[in-house]
Amino acid sequence: MYNYNELKVINPSFDSKLTSLILELDYLRKKEIKLDVPPVLFMELKEIFHLFESIGSLRIEGNRTTVFDYIESKVENKKKQNIIEIENNEKALLFIEENISNLKIDRAFLSQLHKILMENLGYPPMYEGSRNPGEYRKINVKISGSNFLPPDIATVTLYMEELFEFINRDDLPQYDLIKVAIAHHRFAWIHPFDNGNGRMARLLTYAMLLKYGFMKSIKTRILNPTAVFCNNRQKYYEMLNKADNGEESNLILWSEYMLEGIKNEIEKIDRLSQYDYLAGYILKPLIKKGYEKNHLDSEEYKILSYTIDKRIIKAEDIKKILSLGAGMSDSVKTSRIAKRLLEKGFIRKESENSRKYALSLSNKFFLKILSEIFEEKGFISKFLTRSEE
Questions:
Q1: Do 339 and 219 have their domain in common?
Q2: pLDDT score for 82
């Protein structure tokens, strides 16, 4: 049976590990990030990390889709249930980013998120949808593989209102991160929906981090908090279970586990906003591998190498790279090459009507290679790229 414990912030000692983590994360929250990457390229990176976040969250729940499976499904335009789950999670992340500054985290907000997550999904036990999207569960449930029994349905609304009051309460800023950790656990403990509670708990964490200022501008920071839990699902569940008894010592352990993971992810991914790092460690290896695997011909490789060095190129640069003249035939050839690169997803216009171009990562071969490089560099776990035995 579950045991109710008062929902409250905890006060770690000044010299504790948790206090150190709070101070380090508060520094990262206030740290000014000067975006050094062409905005169009950075937004593509952000979309890719939304994908990583979504696949990671779904794989924790048992979805077996890897990054590579997902890329192939997009190419083949297949709409299987496991792919719809991932696409819905991406839509939910976008909904949070577009609305979090104007909306409270309350029942209406979470209801809309749950509806987005469950759209076009079949019902359990075969599928991962909900019979009542956006509504609290109407039956008592058991969690598969766990000894924990969630609260009775008669208490769900009361406990959720308590949680919303806790999240939106005007506490001192130093409690924000503790509240993120405790709210994640409490939501999972209440288990308010008939399905999708794990996904919702991780979306709630994302929403709270944004609400508490970890992305003052969504154009300058990438967040991937689900990565905290991907490397070791068993550890994630063990730490959640430890906190179930409500003892402050176990809540501190849970908070340390979660905040240390978030800190490591933020420090790691913030490097991608610096172009020297991105170009040297990610983009140049990307096109080199693309060329070695024959996804790029020699002309394309030269143009993309130059694009990485210059960040933004024009049609005139393509002429110079390929030693073309100023005649009509050479201008036509230049236009054809630019069009070909655009169609293949190797470059993208800086803006809709622009004649300037930045490197693009949307080509399916690039996405595959990029996933391999991100795994090599420790940005994503092999959990996202490897099929489970």
A1: no
A2: 92
Q: What is the pLDDT of residues 298-311, one digit of tens each?
A: 999 999 999 999 99
CATH of the domain at 378: 1.10.10.10
Q: How much is the pTM?
A: 0.92
pLDDT for 72-97, tens place per residue? 887 666 678 999 999 999 999 999 99
pLDDT the model gives residue 230: 85
Q: Both ends of the chain: CA-CA distance in Å?
A: 34
Q: In the sheet where 347-349 sits, what is the strand order?
A: 313-314, 356-359, 347-349
Does a structural domain hold residue 32?
yes
If one counts the domains in the chain, the total is 2
The answer for residues whose C-beta is within 8 angstroms of residue 50's C-beta and 6 or more apart is 90, 93, 94
Report residue 39 as tokens: 């905005």
Residue 389 in domain: no
Distance CA 136, CA 114 (A): 10
Residues of the chain with pLDDT under 70: 1-2, 75-78, 145-146, 217-218, 325-326, 328, 388-389
Length of the chain: 389
Radius of gyration over alpha carbons of the chain, in Å?
Answer: 23
Residue 319's domain spans which residues?
A: 275-383
Q: What is the pLDDT of residue 77?
A: 64
The position carrying tokens 């906190």 is 243
Domain membership flag for residue 247: yes
Say if residue 126 is in the same domain as residue 256.
yes
CB 48 within 8 A of CB 71: no
Closest CA to 237 of 194, 195, 203, 201: 201
State both tokens at 177.
């991160």
Q: Are 262 and 287 within one domain?
A: no
